[in-house]
Write a structure and sequence with these properties.
64 residues; alpha+beta; Erythroid Transcription Factor GATA-1, Chain A; two-stranded antiparallel ribbon; 1 helix; binds zinc ion
Amino acid sequence: MNTRVLEVNCPTCMKKVVWSEASPWRPFCSQRCKLIDFGDWASERNTIPAEAPLLDDEDDDNPR
Ligand SMILES: [Zn+2]
């Protein structure tokens, strides 16, 4: 029996990636694709609006 080679598809560019130590970025084909994927969900999270919108609350500095 020969060594089994498992191949997966890079989630970013769908390129075939050999699942072995030769592919440190698996399941991605490269660090670039890994960063692209990571950046995707990271930017999605960043689009979540801030919890508390800036409200013009009572002004404590209001001189009376
Ligand atoms: Zn890729």
